[in-house]
Design brief:
- This protein is α/β, with parallel strands linked by helices.
- Helices cover about 40% and strands about 15% of the residues.
- The protein has 15 helices and eleven strands.
- A four-stranded parallel β-sheet has the order 5-4-6-7, with helices on both faces. It has a four-stranded parallel β-sheet with strand order 9-8-10-11. The protein has a three-stranded antiparallel β-sheet with strand order 1-3-2.
- Helix 7 runs antiparallel to helix 8 and helix 8 packs parallel to helix 14.
- The radius of gyration is 21 Å and the shape is globular.
- The protein starts with 8 loop residues before the first helix and ends with a helix.
């Protein structure tokens, strides 16, 4: 059992709940790292928030923040600001174009050798020194001051935010168009849709179970409407006990948990972030909970669940197996050769 406390998805959620913006940007350093000639050259190719040039036929894209990006040709140098985005870019075959990733980007293995630009507070001088002609970033996680500085430098920033699995598919499709990898993105999303259909068919006749997804123990933070994991719980045949919450990542009181009486407790564990076994065991004191009485305190891969990228369908399958193991009994009786 790993108990790595490195802040990633969980850290991101906690950060969003108590965000503090700290500005430490040197304009002189940026100008030196990202000279005016580079900016001028970029204006001739990839433009952000500007009318397209008359002698080219640009393509227009709208990111998840509703921002329009006018992109004349596929970017050749891209920086990813999230592990899930890195996985999308690699899945699209953009290994050579990826020039920077976060410190937490560890999949696929090729991501480990890419230059790192931090994570929660990316070093903007290091970032611009990589000379990206596009940055793909999570909408809620990118600090406003960083975004403003990148826009000032006219570096296109494509923001993504997943509220459902469908959003993840659309993001992959959008990146496929931006990077001229449409066939690849169609193949990836097609495979994801097929697997989603197989999972939902598996659990279609199972009785829904009440589920609590423990994103953090102290304080207790879970997922609510507006988060893609809430959507996944429903697809996997579960009922999220935080379904009435007004936040995608609400802090839940123990009183509410006891009232909702979850039948299954899900603890994400993985290579980067985990709910430690000691924190899982603390739940055994609440013997009135159905999940405790029936020993339904279950671990599921955080790498697959907490990253809204191509592997999220693996997370959906694991979630369905945890909530409805009876739907997979035929696999055990007749294992694949």
């Amino acid at each position: 059992m790993r108990s790595n406390r490195t802040p990633s998805f969980r850290g991101y959620v906690l950060g969003c709940l108590s965000i503090l913006i700290v500005v430490s940007v040197s304009d002189d350093g940026l100008s030196e790292a990202y000279g005016s000639s580079v900016v001028k050259r970029r204006q001739q190719g990839i433009l952000t928030g500007m009318p397209f040039m008359a002698n080219i036929m640009p393509r227009t894209f709208v990111d998840d923040a509703g921002r329009k990006l006018y992109i004349a040709k596929p970017p050749t140098r891209v920086v990813s600001l999230a592990p899930s985005i890195t996985e999308m870019l690699f899945a699209l075959g953009l290994d050579e174009q990826i020039v920077g990733v976060t410190e937490l980007c560890n999949y696929p293995s090729a991501a480990l050798s890419k230059p790192k630009i931090g994570y929660a507070r990316p070093n903007i001088e290091t970032l611009v020194a990589l000379r990206p002609d596009m940055i793909v970033a999570p909408q809620e996680f990118l600090r406003a001051d960083i975004l403003a500085k990148l826009e000032e430098l006219r570096i296109p920033v494509f923001l993504v935010e997943a509220k459902t699995i469908g959003d993840i598919l659309m993001q992959i499709q959008s990146l496929g168009k931006i990077f001229n990898k449409v066939k690849m993105s169609d193949a990836i999303t097609g495979t994801m849709r097929d697997r989603m259909a197989r999972v939902t068919k598996r659990v279609a006749t199972s009785k829904e179970k009440r589920v609590l997804y423990v994103l953090n123990s102290h304080p207790l933070i879970t997922v609510g409407p507006g988060s893609y994991i809430h959507h996944m719980i429903g697809l996997a045949g579960g009922i999220n006990v935080a379904r009435s919450s007004e936040s995608p990542y609400p802090s839940l009181s123990l009183e509410t948990v006891l009232q909702e009486d979850p039948e299954v407790l899900i603890f994400p564990v993985g290579s980067v972030e985990s709910i430690p076994k000691s924190e899982q065991d603390e739940w055994n004191r609440w013997k009135s909970l159905s999940a405790v009485r029936n020993r339904q305190l279950l671990e599921v891969s955080s790498d697959a669940l907490n990253r809204p990228g191509p592997r999220v369908v693996e997370g959906l399958d694991l979630l369905a197996r945890a909530i409805h193991p009876e739907a997979y009994l035929s696999d055990e009786a007749h294992p694949s050769p």
